[in-house]
Amino acid sequence: MIAEYKLKVTICGAGNTGHLAAVLFSQNPKVDVTLFSSQPEFPATYRKNGRQIHALLNDGTLLKASPSCVTACPYEACRDADIIIITTPIHVRDNVLKLIQPALPRNKPVFVGAIPGFGGFDWLAEYHLGTLPNIVLWGMKDVSHIAFELIRGKSVKLGGAKSHLYVALHRREKPEMAEILIGYLNQLYESPVMLLADYLEITLTPGNPIMHGSVIYGLIGPWGQWHKHSFSHIPCWWNDCPELGAYFLARCDEENQLLRKAAEAALHIDLSSVQPLQQEIVEAYGDLIADSRTLLSVLRTNQAYEGIPLPLIKAKNEEGYVFDQHHRVFQEDIACGLSLLVAIGKRLNVPVPYINEIYLWCCEYIGENSATVPIPASWPEIRVVTECA
């Protein structure tokens, strides 16, 4: 009797999203899961913790899983993969793509995507993998679940799930690849997976960069309550979201909508799925939101966001807590996410003063401004209609 073929999934990234995906995917007996981390000590950490990963759901249920393979070797991780999901922060994806490129199968279609897919992943992946004709590039609009409180190699908590998931293929891909991709993802996720018409619908839905950047600026920026002061306790991102943070977020969201309109005019495409942020969150989380009247109330009363602490550390020279300047919200969301929006604004001749102000202030706060953005030199290929800017 011939054994039933299992879908071979490789998760690149052993953070919150990667750990949770490994547990959830492993619940399906028709899926073979490999968890890859480029950190050489990770497999030993996993073995030390009993070769099992736990996911605590918000209803108290505990899911357990032992992936088929946990490895730090890209060749072992990728050699048989049908689909590869990169969950690492944006600022390390360049290195991940370099690592896996020589290890990818050449004898079958391999779907290489990122979750979340914003930050110009399609452009970056094309730069590294564009010469491989069997590689299909894709991305997901946002994470499928909120995941937090990671204990590496051991456990993670699930905060809430999206009601619908949205993916897009790179513009270079053949239409028939979409059906295969959707089929794969429907084996992995309970929420229905919908196909977007253009990858820019993902690039211009930059939830984390504008959300995290605005809250940080509203808390410790020039007009923030904790400007040049330490926190006496560790607040939560969203339960304790300041009104000033929500104000800056609304302004950044308005600027992002201007980028959407300019890109539609320049490229003659429909980006109507790039919705205002409040509408986007309400549609994604539905009944998990107790009060959907305003952007601030949506953020504060979304059960999926509940209890997620700010990335603070003990202050060195005073009592209290300060932001961890090396945390991924700065290295990923600011240095890569906001910088890309600023660059897109310049390419489209669209001023984004609030986004730019937050980006520059945060760069000064962490003491660096060395981000590179993966926009191709020829983009946008069609001349921008300047009056739309």
Q: The biggest beta sheet, please?
A: 8 strands, mixed
What is the CA-atom radius of gyration, in angstroms? Answer: 21 Å
Q: What is the highest CATH level, the class of the largest domain?
A: Alpha Beta
Mean pLDDT: 92
Assign the CATH architecture of the largest domain. 3-Layer(aba) Sandwich
CATH topology of the largest domain, by name, is Rossmann fold
Number of domains: 2
Helical proportion, percent range: 25-40%
Relative strand content: 15-25%
Question: Could you explain the architecture of this structure?
Answer:
Helix 8 packs antiparallel against helix 9 (243-267), helix 8 (207-220) crosses helix 13 (353-366) and helix 12 packs antiparallel against helix 13 (353-366). 39% of the residues lie in helices and 17% in strands. It is an alpha/beta fold and 389 residues long. An eight-stranded mixed β-sheet has the order 5-2-1-6-7-8-11-12, sandwiched between helices.
Topology of this structure?
Elements: E1 7-12, H1 16-26, E2 31-36, H2 42-48, E3 53-56, E4 62-65, E5 69-71, H3 74-78, E6 83-86, H4 90-100, E7 110-114, H5 121-129, E8 135-140, E9 145-151, E10 155-161, E11 165-169, H6 176-188, E12 193-195, H7 200-203, H8 207-220, H9 243-267, H10 277-285, H11 295-301, E13 312-314, E14 321-323, H12 328-348, H13 353-366
Parallel strand pairs: 1-2, 1-6, 2-5, 3-10, 6-7, 7-8, 11-12
Antiparallel strand pairs: 3-4, 8-11, 9-10, 13-14
Helix pairs in contact: 4-5, 8-9, 8-12, 8-13, 9-12, 12-13
